[in-house]
Structures
1.
Amino acid sequence: PNLAKKIAGAPKAELHIHIEGSLEPEVIFNLAKRNGVKLSYESIEALKRAYEFTDLQSFLDIYYAGASVLLTEEDFYTMTAAYVDRALADNVVHTEIFFDPQTHTERGVAISTAVAGIERALAEGEQRGLTSKLILCFLRHLSEADALATYEAALPLFDTYAHRLIGVGLDSSERGHPPSKFERVFAKARARGLKLVAHAGEEGPPAYIHEALDVLKVDRVDHGVRSIEDPALVARLADSRVALTVCPLSNIKLRVFDDMKQHTLKQLLAQGVAVTVNSDDPAYFGGYVNANYFATVEALDLTEQEVYTILRNGFEASFVSPIERQALI
Ligand code: ES4
Ligand code: ZN
């Protein structure tokens, strides 16, 4: 309880949050009503009852259904403003947020509409003590051509929103969609000087983490928890200090581990891997950043020193410059 209090009060960086995964059930229903979008769940309670996931895909099906209520700039603002409130309540002082443009362009919503709404809420957050960056993620279950078209369509936004939109990522269904499928679009983003991240080793094998590093040349690995199965990879991650953005509650809800006591975060940390703690899709997985810390500390008996290392890793692995970083802590 004492350590929990210290964690709650500590300034934190969050490096792995899908903004569409911050849509609380109540907000989904409000936006559906506002936009006349028909949901296949008749009530908030019915929707919540569907949050019984068996794997990543069973979650993604519901996550994309939830995101279908987002149509206007105001909707993206509403969603992001709610997340900003939650982040500030957890003493998050810096956040690096993912969004999935292809989820929205598919429904006729322009990328610029999504970014404008997200940006307006993040600019307000800056005034309240939350700095932030935005990362555009490609959906890996879609084709490389689709990712390339999305990247080209977003190019003007990387200029207009250069202060915020600083990188690209890779998410959605991992199995059968290796990082190498997106080699060319990541090469283009790299040539432009964008930061690069990819989900790898969440459900996929350690080989996908090697690929993310070798082929995509990512700056961070999202999840990466299956690296533990490959000792040489763990050593490589530790030596390179390429960080893992671990999301403990997500891993339990999506059955990556049977329960929190089985989580490998503590072992990875002990082997020198730059582990961070993050919320992933907090509206779906049972909590925001602090809840992720509390559940992990409790199940794995993390020491105050270990928690301090994780907190510091969050800032060190962030994409702000060293001097900006110092100002946050
Ligand atoms: C995601 Cl937990 C997770 N994994 C992969 N893709 C995602 N998109 C949103 N949440
Ligand atoms: Zn994720």
Note: Residues 16, 18, 171, 199, 222, 280 surround zinc ion (ligand 2) (CB under 6 Å).
2.
Amino acid sequence: MTKAFIFDLDGVIVDTAKFHYLTWKNLADSLGIPFSEEKNEQLKGVSRAKSLEKILEWGHKILPKAEFESLMFKKNEEYLSFVNQMTEKDILPGVMKTLDYLRSNGYAIALGSASKNARLILSKVGLEAYFEEIIDGNEVTKAKPDPEVFLKGIDALGGTPKYAIVFEDSLAGIEAANTACMTSVGIGDKSILKEADFNFQDFIEIDKSVIETLIKFKK
Ligand code: G6P
Ligand code: MG
């Protein structure tokens, strides 16, 4: 089999990571729980419910189920108010060039995201058609760092894990790809994503020769 590519969404394809940060910060502030960019790193790639559980844990708070659900709903409503304004201008630099290259060379491409808003976001920025398979937060039961989302992605593409190359901006996602024995490519801060097989600041750095290197790499 030729190699297949699995993309995370938030913080890899689009800059929605900043909207997640803002809306979690507002929620934490409203509960009087200290929240920082450093803490936010631990929420990247993590499902909505797990993220709220972590924030409450940091604040030593336990909430009744109904209140927990209502906070998740509120957070998502605020997040969606940003998402609804998104256009193709929100696609991160270099992403289009990479997707076009992979597609025109016949490589299989899937999305592997913890977000339940993934399809909405892809349609907002006009990228749905690039993905042969979309595995998102509605289809997984175990959050990253569990490899479920990526294993389902490669399975849907008809491949096996060692042929998969995963692009991720989160610690949890890199761990998930490594656990699945896939090639892990960190997008963003190398000092944070040190466990990745490869690191790049963004997709501008990922040219044709880099893609060839990723394809030849054996874990
Ligand atoms: C991604 C983001 C997380 C987010 C999760 C769930 O993995 O990195 O920050 O919490 O998706 O997103 P959702 O859109 O379903 O709230
Ligand atoms: Mg991400």
Note: The longest strand covers residues 108-112.
